[in-house]
Amino acid sequence: MQCGFQVLLISTIALFFALPTQAAETNPNGLNQKPEPGWSMWQPKAEIAATDFIAGFSNIELGGFMDFEQSCADEIGTSKDEVPYWFRLSRSIDQIGTGNVEFGCWKNGTFLFAIINTAVSTKLEDVTCLRVRVPTGDDLRIRAEPSLKARTTGVVRNGATVSPDGFPATIVQADRRNWVAIQMPQRGWVSNDSSETPGNLTLCNVAKKR
After folding, report:
1. Which domain holds residue 43?
2. Residue 100, pLDDT score
3. How far is CA 115 from the centre of its chain?
4. Residue 210, pLDDT score
């Protein structure tokens, strides 16, 4: 696996920041028990072992998570091992194998702190192929940078395939879109649309781990 220092959106930690949510005091999924668009349901820390993902692919992310745990422990008044945090996964993990995991420590109906790290599916071998599947049937532009204003350097036909720059793939959010770095058919960036949509990319026939 090409973990390296490829980072999906530099890890961010929100200190003393209450995430907006309509939630019951004991459950961050809210009274309606529905996930936010682009995300899975929140799950308690105890469910991590049964969930098929791994995270923490750089010293920056690992260090940020340690700071998150310590901040939660200090504020709640417990040890790091006893922090009652929750986590949720972005939908792109199922779409292209790479996505985000967000952790938050929950108390009295709000998140005290939160952090987002890169995550990948552990159900798959390294993802080296993604298929273009634009819902409108249009071709997908390759751009020099992750931006709608960036120069178009090529086009990928709908139904054709691209190769991400690694696994986990490098993904940047800009212009309300998720941009994926590719190396084939040429180096550049393609839009996987927003997290709330089905996306423009899907997995090829990727081998699943046994």
Report:
1. 12-121
2. 95
3. 12
4. 57
